[in-house]
Structure formats: C-alpha cells, structure tokens
Task: structure prediction
Amino acid sequence: MNPIPEESISSLGSRSEGRAWRHNVKSESSSPSPSSSSSRSSTSGGSGSGYESDWEREVSEDGSVFLVVPSLPQETPELLEEVNGTWSKDPVDKSVKKTGKLSRLVRRRESKRDRSVFPNQDSPKRIANQAQLHHESSDNDSSTYYGQLKTFESVFEGSNPVEMHEVTLRIKGRKSVQPGQSLMENMMGIIPVRHGLEPQHLNNVVVAGYLTDGPAIKISDKLQIGDIIRLVDGQQINLSTIEQMLSTYSSSTKIKMTIQRPTRIYPTDNSSSLDDSSTENYQAPANISNLFDGNAPSPGEVEGILKKLPFVGLYLTRTGITETSPEMADVLFQFPLNLVGDHSARLIKARGMFVTLCQALPDVTNSKPIVSTVVLNDHLVHIGFAEEREDTLLLAFPATKCSSKIVCQIVRDVVRLLRLRYQTLANAFNPKNHSEINQFFAVLFLDELLNLSALSRSSLDLSTLFRSHEAKFDQNLPASQWLYLPEEIKFQVDDAMNQFESSDFQDFNDEFYDLPREFNIVGSCLFHRGHLLASHMPRDDMVDILLWCRFKKLLGLTQLSRVHQLVAWHEVFVTRESFRTTKLLGPLDYDESMQRTFLLVVGLGHQLLGAVFSIGGCSGDPIGPVKPDPFYVDQAMNTLDHLEDMGIPMVCDRWLTLPANPEIVDVDHLYEKAITSKRLDAHALSGASTSAKHLPDKGIVLRKTRSVDYSLASSPTESDELSLNRSENSEQSEELQTEFREDSKASDPSKSEEGSSVWELHRSGQRSHKNFSGDLPQDSSLNDSVGSDEFVRYQVSQLTLSPENTLFHYIHLEVGQGVYLAPLSPPKSPLHSALIENFRATCQIIHSTFQVSLKSREMVRTLKTSPKPWLNRSLVAVKEQALLFHWTPDPVTETKPPAKNMPVLSYWVCGRLFLGANPRECYICYHESAPQDMIELAFRLAHGIHV
Amino acid sequence: FQRNNKNETMSVYLVCITTGGGIPILSRKHGDIKSLPFPLLASLNGVALFGESHDINLISTSTRDCRIVWRDFHNSIRLIVAVSNDTISEVHIHKLLDLIFQSMVLTVGLNDLVGQRNVERTKRDLRASYFIIDRLISLMSPSESYTNFGDLVGAADCVVFPESHLIQNYLESYVESVDSTYGCVMVDGRIACATKNWWSLHPDEINLLSLSVLTDNWSTLRDVPIFLPVKSPTVPFRFIVCQLLANVTVCSLCGPAPQLPAIEGMIQKNWKSTHNLLSSLASIVPRGFPSVPIDSNILGLILVNLDNKRVISSLQPIITDPMAKDPLGPTTRNMPNARKFDILRTFYRNTVGPIFPDHFVPTPHAADAKGDFPSMNVSHAVLKHPVGETYQCSEFHKCYALQHRQYQLFLLFTSNIPNHFMRNSAHRTLQLFLSDKTFQIIR
Result:
C-alpha cells in the first residue's frame, strides 16, 4: 500500500475560486473535437435531460449522490463489444488521435459515455439498442433506474418498469371532500404512501392501502399494495399531479391505470464475462440477487414474520427529560417505527432499565456497559449499548441470530458508520434524517435477522426464522479480504490509481495551470468482487469505505453481478479525525481538521473504486453543500475503465478461480477418498487437495498481458504523444492471454488429466477491436516479442510442510492494515462448508480470548497510574489457543448420497496472536496428522505472502 | 511479574437482596474496592425489578472490564454479583452463585431464607455463612491457603492414598458407633475415603462441607447444625468435625443423638491406634497422590472423573529435592502455588463452557420458575463439532486440556515445552493415572 504522493498536493498554487476550473473543464473538454461533441448526447443534452451524465440528475440537495445501474440482462459482453466496435469505426476517433493534449481526456470521457443507458441519438447501433432499452426507460421518471433502489424497504416499494400492468378502475364521482382527504382517497379509494422512503420516490404514487368503501378495494387482486401507479389514461402522474388530474373527472367514470409492480429489481446477471467453468463458483444458490429478484419475500411477509422476533433500535436522550415529560419524550428515534409485535414494544417500554444501567454501572465497575443479556418471553436477547454525551443508542438482537460478541461489533460498526455520515450520533438521529436512518436500520436488522443474502421466498418460514444463524467471523471484521495479485499486475493497478490520485489533470488543458484544484484526493482503494485489490489510504479511511460499502450492500452486489454504473458521493466525517488528539498547532502548521471530506464510490463491472476527497486548505474552501464534480467523477470512472481496458478484472476473476494458493484440502474429496480406502489418514489426504497434486517444479503459467507494457509506457513522465500511442496500442491488443500451461511431467496420469481439464483456457480476442488491425505496425511486432519472460508463474505452494497437504482453511488477519487473507474461493461442498462454519465459531472464541488477553495487557501497562481491581493476571500474555475436533459427519444430513460409516475427521483449529508494531492474528485449520512442529513453520510462512 | 501483592487480587462484589421488599440481607466484597453505597445497590436491584414488571428478566451486563450477573432464587432472594469480565462463558459465574446460595441455605435453612418471616433475624443468622461465602468469592483470585478445585469443577476433591482401604475400616466402625451412615476422612479438605452415603451427597454439598471444614478450623472438635442444601434443606443435621492431625479431619453427619461427649469417646476409641497411618496420609499432600514418574514439565494438574464426580489435583506434582540441580533451572519451578492455582482455574473457566461442555449436576435451587437453568443461556458462539483437546499458550506458561471418555485432564506446563510435545505428555499422563491401581478413587 503506497502512500499518497505528497508532491502532487504541494505543487498547487494559490487559492482562488475553484469552481471556475470545473466549468472550464466542461466546456473545454468537448470543444476540441466538435464532431464528437455533437454526437454525444450528454454534452448536447440529447437525451433531453440537460445533464451531462446519468448520475448528475441524482444529486440531492445536500450534494450527495447514490446511483446504481446494474448491468442489463441483455448487455452481454458481445453487445458491449459491438458498441465499442461501432465507436471505433467512427472516423472521428482517428482525428482524436491527432489532437493535442486533451485527446486523452476526451477519449476517456467517450469511453465513459458508452456506458450511458440513454439511447444515443446519432449512433445507429445505439438506436438499435434503443429498442431493447426502451422499456427500461419508458418514462423520464428517475426511478426507472431500478438500480437506485438500494435499501431493502424500497425493494418492496419497487419500481421495475419491466413489470407493467394495465388495470381499469371505475372511479366514483367526486363527493364532498373532507378536509385532509385527498381526491385519490375520495374517488379511487386508494390511500397513497405519503412519505417517500427514498428521495427519488418522493413523488411516486405508491398504493399504501384501500378505503373499505372505495372502488379500488374491489380490484385489490389486480392493484396491490406496493404498486406504483405510473400512468392514468396514458398520462404520466405523480403525487402532485394526480389530484389535479382526478379533479378533471367530475362524475363516475372508468379510468385505465398503468401500474408497476416490484417483482424484479435487479436482474440477476448470469452473463458475466467469465467462461462457464469459472462462473460456477459464483452461482451459489444463496446469493444476494435473491434480494433483488422475484424470490424475495414481500414486505407483508417480512413484517409478519419479524413480529415473532425480539429486536429493536432505540436512540434515547436524558437531556431535558424530567418526571413530568410526556411518555415517549426521551425516545428520539425508534426502529421499527410502527411497533411490530409484542417483543419490541416491551423492550421499548422497559428502556428505562438500560438507561439506568448506563448511569449506575460506571460507579460500580469504572467502565460503561457494552452489552446486556435479558430473557424476554423465552427469547434470549442481547442489547448493545453506545453512549454519546447524554444520549444512548440501544440495539437489541435475539441471541439465536447474533452472539453477544457480534452484537458488540454491530454496535461498534453502526456507530462508526453513523458518525462517518453525520459526524455525531445526535446529528444522525436528528428528525430530518429519520427516513434515511430508518432505511439504514431496515437493512441492518433484516440482514442480521433473516440473513438477506440467503433469503428467498421458498425458505421463509418459521423454521428459518428461529433457526440460529451460523457464527460469523471474517464477515464481520473491520477488515477486508485481500486479493493478492502478482507484483506486475499489482503495479499496474497501483499505477492507475496513482494517476488518479495525483490529480495531475492540468495536462489536459493549458487553462488549468494556475488554477487551484477543487478537491484534494486523500487516497483511494479498489475492490474487485468485494475483495480489496489495493488501498492507498490510511487503514481507518479504508475501513470506513469498506464498512460503508458493506452496509450499502455494494460489496455483495459487485461480488455476484456486474454493475453498469455506480456513483455515490457523500460528505463524510472520517473516523481517523475523531481518533486524533487535539494538539497545539503552531502558526505554520496546517490543521487538517478544518477540511471537509467527501466519499466518492464509483463502480463498474465487478470493480468498486472508493476515494476520499478533501476540500479546504490549498484547495477551495466552499460553504454549503458540495456537489460532486463531474470531472473528478469521470476521472474515477475512467480509472476503472482504464483498469478494465488493461484486463485487470479478468486477471482478478481468473485469480479467483485458480486453485487456492496455498493449497487447501477439500473435505468432501477427502471423504470420497476415505470411504473408498476405508480409512481416513494421511494417505487419504494425498488425493484430496482442491486440485491435483503439484510437484514443486510444476506450476501454472500465465502469459503477461500486453497492458504491462502499456502501464510501463504510460507513466506520467512519458511524453503525451508516446503515452497516447501506447495507450491506443494497448487498447486494441488488449486481449488477455491467460494461457495456462500444465507441466507435462505429471507424476500421476490421472491427476494430470484432471488438472488440465480445469485449467485449459485460452481467452484471446474476446475484447479485441477488429477495426484496428494493421493500423499500427508495432502491434504485430509486440505479438512476436512474446517470449519466455512474459509469463507470470502461478505457483501453488503448500503451507504445511508435511509430506501431504493437511490444510483445510486459514485466515490471516493483519489488524494494522485492516486486511485479511483467506482462501479466495473455498470449496462450496456441504462437508467443507460445515467445517468452515465450525471454524468461524472457533475463531470467534479464540478471538475473544485474545481480546481479553490484550485488554489485560493494557491494564497491566497502566497499573501504575490507577488500580485495576478487575485484572486477571494469568491471561495477560496469552498468544496461542488451539482446539482439536473429532467430527463424525452426520451421514444422513451432511452428505449426499447418504453414506454409511463415516470415519471420524480429526482436525485442529489453531489461532495465534502476533504482537508488535504490526499486530496480526492467524487462524489455521488443519488435519490432525500434521506434525505440530510443521505447523510452526506454517505460521512463520503466514508472515510473508507466498504467491 | 510473578509478584503477588494485594492490588492483584481480582475484585468481586456480592449483594443479596430480597426480591419482595428490596431489603439487602447480605453484602460482601473482595479485593481493594470501596463498598457499594446503598443508592447504587438499590439501583442495581431496581433495574432488575423494573424489567421484571415488563416481563423482562435481566441476566447479565458486561462492561469492558467487568461482568454483572443478576440471579433470582426461589422467587424470593436475588443475588447480584460483579466479577472480572475474563471469561467467554457465564456458566462459572452461575456456578458461583449456586454455591453462594447453597451456602446460605446450609447455614440458615431454606425455609428461613426463602420465607423471610423475620428478615432481621435471618440477616443475623447469615453472618455464620460469611466465612464460606468470603472464601468462595476469594477463589476468583490467586490464593495461598487454598488449593482445591472442587467448587469450580463441581466434583468432590480427593487424594489418592494407597492405604485408604485401611482407613476406610476405621471410618466405617466410627460412623456406625455415632449412629450415622455419613462420614469421611479428609486431608486438607480433600477426601481420602468416605462412606457410601457420603458419596451419594450432591457434589456441591460435599464441596461446601469441605469448605466449612477448611475455613472454620480453630477447634479440634466441632458440632454445628447444618442444612444439606439438596438432601435436607429444611431439617438440620449435626455436622461433627474432629481434627485428628493438623490437616486430617474426620467428619460425620449425625442426628440428635449421641451427645457430643459420647462422640468424643467414640473418636478416642476408634482412632487412637491410627497415628502412623494418618501421618502417612497427611504426607500425601501437597502432591495429592503417590509418587509417579510424571513429566517434569508439568507444573500443575487437574484430573476430573465426570461419571463419579471426583477430582484430583496437584500444584506440586513433582516434589524435587531443593538441593538437587533442577534441569529446568530455578526460574520456571519458582512459580508460586497461588499463581499456578490462578492460572489453572482461569484456564478451566475459559475451557469448560465455551469449548468443553460442562457436566455440572444441577441443583433444585438453580432452576427458575419455568424449570430452566440460567446457565443454559449461551451468549457466545457455539461450536458445532465435539472437541477432544485444546491448549492455550502464554509467554509465561502453557496449558493443555484433554477430554477422553469420562475423564478431563487439565495440565499446566512450563513455557519452554514445545507445543507438539504437550499433546504427547498429556496422553501419557492420563495413561499413567488410569493404569495405576492405587488411583482407584478416581477411576
């Protein structure tokens, strides 16, 4: 993780109005190539929106943006290719190559335009696509971007334009309208949803209920609660216009309504650019797309079922509360808003006890309460506490779903996220934010209680409801799983991110010199399918972004399906600032806390780029809401585009599907072997690795991508001319030659056969641009120069040093970096999953032991300054804990086909704590037969990354 | 680091309040902490009371350093305890509360304690239980004077004495002569031999009787009325304790007859010729078992038989000649007993519960109104597969636990033993104990 290049920040000049620069960018960027500007719907406002990009219309009043456009189901890579091809054929592009410094910028912007879902006016292909796309954007209402619906609640509210129904309704004549009664209620008998849950839904006419004597209830089979009424008699309507519209009907008449039903929100994306063998890994039955397709349960079902569980989120205050205050005056916020079920109501009524605990316990124990456990109607419930001044945040979860440890973690993360967004909890729970907070908690509780990602209609019943959840460990850590790439590829990624972070955009236009930049880019981090690829920011900033994306479900989304476009922008209060101790600043010191910071997350395909921007200091110092600068957003998008051009996502996907490195043993394979050989020992282990056995001199060989050359050539020091040539060069020869070569010296014929079938792969040309063939002579020469040094060797190593591999699973947690390493795609087979589930529960217990140990160590350190009455000395220096399990899989439920006489599997789960400047925790799970002195070596290996 | 001064005791608060009137009837503390003022005590009780009025049973609350547990007994007595937050599981805190409640029953009987007809008198009578309760809560921290584990393990502390069958004969005839069937011979609070009926007592009862023998030892012959918390919570027995040697006592539970002078005569008659035998019994401690070729890396051990609820333990399994050259060097051997005791107890508390299932015998007092046991409420992650062995390494020591059939073995090792050697050593030690004929009492 490289530091942010400082010189780029310091190179900036005096401050003046930063806005001007941005406007310059806008106009200048399109002017040098007039032909292209006329063909771009965006700049000319061709779509009628007047906005430059899709996300700009989503900017809310406070400047924040949240837009997700998932890949369209039709948008296969081939289609994209065609579109790209079309653009490339455009003669304009050749002229672009000749234009000066701005050309690169323009090119980048063009590639971004390609992603616009708006049909482009001038392109014939686009018009052809328009037919396909038409139903997606059948009206101009912003909500047709189904991707915007991100919260769970709004999933139910729904607005997928694909599911349009026509309903006829005979409305009643207007009778005496009572004050406060709308015409909708009076004439149609429909109670609309009045408060929009999402800003962009504020104006939608959503059916919330029927009047019992109204006409609508008679057609309640056709017009359902939750439906959005889009058109009435062919006219578009919204909450404000429907009244006006209805007032034109004076007597009873038939009207035709077009309604939209939220059945499919996110189309499941089965057309990822991977070939079949690799996609299998991502098509686990339990996937997050259930949430967005028809399998998700309806709000009514969810609400009904949640009634049976005790849960609540409360924000209470003690300020200004006296004996005479009204009953609920101290409750500043509660979730659920309308009390569902007896449990939640009871917890809210008894909130006084938790407030008293918060006040009384510090006097008894010298520390504040963290978590309480109560029994409520035979449910064990954990209540987590967080305090801010006189206020208390309480979150209650049933113990079947979260252990008390997890509740503490949830509270910690929730507080961190709310402070990230609103600076303080008091701000967060300000009434003006209630709808946002409500959504936030809706997603949080649904996820924790029903496990959103595994949720489907078929499985939603009481047995799932009361079934206890699997233990979580790595999923809940404030750390990100790291996808470790080979040095060369990592270098390319870092280089692309550095280019973005350097903010060296002046090169694009002479007029930018002398102007101060609008934002400083503090750092950025890149995720692929939810795995961290690179982070150029402090740990706390990265974890802020990680948690934000995790709670917004963006990581889960990009893990399983592609996004077409994702832009999110928020003013944030980074956690790092709150950790800082206020120190005296000299007159020349620069106080960073004066800065305002912003979070930008953009997504493309499976990639997410998160960045933290700051304003203040050498950049401008604006007051009021700050909207995202399209130029910076474009730059971020272009960075992702650029990475895609280089084939980085493909490399990552390939990396995710390669055999696990270090090698791990698949328990199911182990059992298959063991059952045939009637015993389970080291012998059986030899054949049970996830892949065929590899001798040390074998390996998988990846041919280097051409983009290596590109990235080397296009470093900022190169002249523009050269970098342009090279980038064009790379663009058309960008095929990723992931050619895997099996070493022919396979020891066992059967194994090599198996192995080669897995890795035989040749993916060249899929994204190549045909039209450029022969255009650039160096293309072929580069192809010829592919030599032995252009191969990246992927060597599968064995972590345990015993003769046979004995490793089942591992987690290596770098606490200091906020990242962890674990097998990228562990086997999904039933026995292995059962093993991992138990592994996680064990890790939670060992981790708790380490936490107590660290706490005791801290207490001993400060023993001199204050007495520590609660210290247990014997736990001070605990650094390793291990458990040996003897597991006999249940032959009926845990295997298929059912097998008799399952042998006992004995395995260790061992956790070790490494202290020092860079604290680490390492957990490994290995077969009992591994000699333990070998395990010592495995731990030592885990210090370095051994790819 | 291994100093053991007063600041290092782990503190404990214990409060006992009647649930009906909120009257505090007992309040103890251990360690260097200030007493709880009444308003604080009242608010601790108040939160539980308030929750109850909304049908919410408050069980526990954790802070960073500390854990507070509320527990009602017989819907009449509420115990509130604050202990260090050093374990993952709450099961041992509940075990402690069970023992505290039973020691109150032991002194005043269930009717007086629960009925609360005269609270002031009960309060006064309960003072007699202070010495057992104080000892129980002091066991959370290192202790120099006490080396038994029965209260923690929920089993009867025993010593392995090769000639116990000889003592058994003397014991049987003595018990018969005082018109009883309950009797045992203890050395340092651990049973060397006992009558069949004594073994039939609940392990908690045996432990409380051992504790009372150990802590209240200023006389050679005692006759105190006690209620057996499980067997006879409302009708008192006479608990006759006679000190035969400095650390060897004979105990029996008697009815109203015979009178104490008569019993004294019986003791004289039965035990006068046993001096040599008892002296060799007395010398079995502190090791607690005859010399066996045990691994020299082992600093302490606990062996539990889960079937017959007996435990043997030792903090000095190897008694080395102080003049002989210790191959391990002087520093590792010098770990004080109090520290070994503390480490082994902490290891046990962190192992049984979250890792090994607990096998405590429930008492009728432990069940709540619905017949559920509070210790069944598990708040940590639950392991799905059975655990056979586990270890924990610290920079200063290593601990190993092994569960094999009905046996649980907990070992404390020096820190310089290699990890992979511990497993071997543990298996060999267990084999050694189980194959030796003299270890009959634990088998």
Summary: Residues 54 and 335 of chain B are 51 Å apart (CA to CA). The first strand of chain B starts at residue 12 and ends at 18. Chain B touches chain A through 73 residues (CB under 8 Å). Chain B has three domains: 12-141, 161-283, 298-372+379-442.
